[in-house]
Design goal:
With 479 residues, the chain is an alpha/beta fold. It folds into 2 domains: 6-255 and 453-473, Aldehyde Dehydrogenase, Chain A, domain 1; 260-435, Aldehyde Dehydrogenase, Chain A, domain 2. Helices cover 41% and strands 23% of the residues. The protein has helices at 43-59, 67-83, 85-96, 100-124, 157-170, 185-196, 215-221, 234-247, 269-281, 298-313, 333-349, 376-379, 395-403, 418-427, 460-467, and strands at 6-7, 9-11, 14-16, 23-28, 33-39, 129-132, 136-144, 147-151, 174-178, 204-206, 227-231, 251-254, 260-263, 293-297, 351-357, 363-369, 386-392, 407-408, 410-414, 432-435, 450-451, 454-455, 468-476. It has a 7-stranded mixed beta sheet, sandwiched between helices. It has a 6-stranded mixed beta sheet with strand order 10-9-8-11-12-22, with helices on both faces. It is globular. 54% of the residues are buried. The protein binds nicotinamide-adenine-dinucleotide. Residues 151-155, 160, 178, 180-181, 210-212, 216-217, 220, 231-233, 236, 239-240, 254-257, 288, 381, 383, 409, 453-454 line the site of nicotinamide-adenine-dinucleotide (NAD). Keywords: NAD, Oxidoreductase.
């Protein structure tokens, strides 16, 4: 596996083929042609990767290193990622059609930052000491949990993978990463760079393959895995939780979303339109946090719609490798068909005011109005560039509409009224609520959702608590 377009598993520090030699193609959704050949792993390959991670955890230096030494390797890895930003960005763009300015300009730097942040966070973390009246005190320690299986989705291939891998490694775990089958190549590149950064063999393993009856399922079934961190579809999350239950393996699940975006009449209209456009059309709508249900207060509804439509129609659709492109193709033919099925639903559920199908696997920035709250377009995660827009009259009505969803990942609101901002932020569902902005993240903050959006939170100490075994040590201070 040395050709520029060949990508192997990374197991025990070596880039290798599958045991049975099987491969699959990664298809570039813009050209709709294969561009890379990838090792296709199955159960035997996944078991081999877990065995390597287990050995590296039980016998190797990684969990026993100090935070400084481990952190230095993680920072070196971040440096290498920044040096190789062009190749990493292009890999994600070719695998999934993400505009290059987003992959190279946003995802790669943020992926490198994930390593820097969690390396420093682990090194600088404090733990509580609890003085007790009884002449004792209790202090907490956080030992690495063991082998973490990280199963990641295709929409932010490198960024989602590093969001899992970085905290797991920083806290001393070893990892088996299984990237999504549609976007495998940047994960192999990450494994290569980890070796170059001096990471010991077996600490970061990458196994490629599908989910059910393949490498993904084998990881979730393996009793030698101590943590499963998964990001993906809510239905897959349910299956993985059932598999994890057999071994009582703790899981962290970041699943789907149907984010509400509420724009009040007193909002700064330019700012609200600008963020609302980015909230739904960034990454061609393939974002769990996408502001896919937009609620606009009636006095500004018409003005908002005309500005929103003008901005949507000004977006540049094209080859995602071109700097000017803002909207690329959807990730795959299968996903295009799924999103198309929702576009086809529009005439029976509402009225399209802009957008529709483009050439190839392209769906144009699409907006739909006159939608009932129980319409499928309003309730189901489309995961494409399709927004439904609904007017409202009162604050109370807006909150009810926004919260009428089985998802609970995030919400947004736009208002210049300070009291309303705090009040409504407290009432809206979601693990994150953005006020007058969107996408801004602090890696110390909890990230995740409730209901169909997931189980648990990651970020800062939330990641520490998931990827470690917290222990209370109770000490007698005087006999
Ligand atoms: P998916 O569930 O189809 O696949 C995700 C990963 O799970 C892939 O690596 C896949 O191979 C693996 N997988 C599938 N079935 C499996 C099984 N039975 N056992 C083990 N592994 C299995 O999701 P996707 O289509 O890649 O991603 C899109 C979904 O991800 C959307 O629903 C989106 O909202 C969600 N997502 C959520 C967040 C978040 O933070 N909440 C972020 C990004 C994406």
């Amino acid at each position: 596996m040395t050709a520029a377009s060949s990508f192997g598993h990374i197991i025990d520090g070596e880039e290798i083929d599958s045991l049975d030699g099987a491969t699959f193609d990664s298809v570039d959704p813009w050209t709709r042609e294969p561009w890379a050949q990838v090792a296709l792993g199955g159960k035997a390959d996944a078991d081999r990767a877990v065995a390597a991670a287990r050995k590296a955890f039980d016998e190797g230096p990684w969990p026993r290193m100090g935070f400084n030494e481990r952190g230095a390797i993680l920072h070196r890895l971040a440096d290498l990622m920044e040096e190789h930003a062009d190749e990493l960005g292009l890999a994600d763009t070719r695998d999934m059609g993400k505009p290059i300015t987003q992959s190279r300009g946003n995802d790669v730097p943020r992926s490198a930052l994930n390593f820097r942040f969690f390396a420093d966070h682990a090194r600088m973390s404090t733990a509580e000491v609890l003085p007790m009246d009884s002449g004792h005190h209790t202090y907490n320690t956080f030992a690495p949990a063991g082998v973490a299986a990280a199963i990641s989705p295709w929409n932010f291939p490198l960024m989602q993978a590093t969001w899992k891998v970085a905290p797991a490694l920083a806290w001393g775990n070893t990892v088996v990463l299984k990237p999504a089958e549609d976007t495998p190549t940047s994960a192999t590149m990450l494994g290569r760079l980890a070796k170059e950064a001096g990471m010991p063999a077996g600490v970061l393993n990458v196994v490629h393959g599908y989910g059910p009856d393949s490498a993904g399922q084998a990881l979730t079934d393996n009793p030698a895995v101590d943590r499963i961190t998964f990001t993906g579809d809510s239905g897959t999350g349910r299956i993985i939780m059932r598999a994890a239950a057999a071994n009582l393996t703790p899981v962290s699940m970041e699943l789907g979303g149907k984010g509400a975006n509420v724009v009040f009449a007193d909002a700064d209209l330019d700012n609200a339109v600008d963020w609302s456009i980015r909230a739904i059309y960034t990454n061609t709508g393939q974002v769990c946090l996408a502001g896919s249900r937009l609620y606009v207060q009636r006095p500004i509804y018409d003005e908002f719609l005309s500005r929103f439509v003008a901005a949507a129609e000004a977006m540049v659709i094209g080859d995602p490798k071109e700097e000017a492109t803002q909207i690329g193709p959807l990730v795959s033919e299968e996903h295009y068909r799924k999103v198309k099925s929702y576009v086809d639903l529009v005439p029976s559920e509402g009225k399209m005011i802009t957008g529709g199908l483009g050439d190839g696997w392209v769906v144009k920035p699409t907006a739909v109005v006159d939608i009932a709250p129980d319409a499928r377009l309003c309730r189901e995660e489309i995961f494409g560039p399709v927004v439904v827009i609904t007017p409202f009259d009162t604050e109370r009505e807006a909150v009810e509409l926004a919260n009428d969803t089985r998802y609970g990942l995030n919400s947004m609101l736009f208002t210049d009224n300070l009291h309303r901002a705090h009040r409504v932020a407290g009432l809206l569902k979601g693990g994150s609520v953005w006020v007058n902005c969107f996408f801004i993240r602090d890696l110390r903050a909890p990230f995740g959702g409730s209901g169909d959006s997931g189980v648990g939170r990651e970020g800062g100490n939330f990641s520490r608590e998931f990827f470690t075994e917290p222990k209370a040590v109770i000490m007698q201070l005087a006999p």
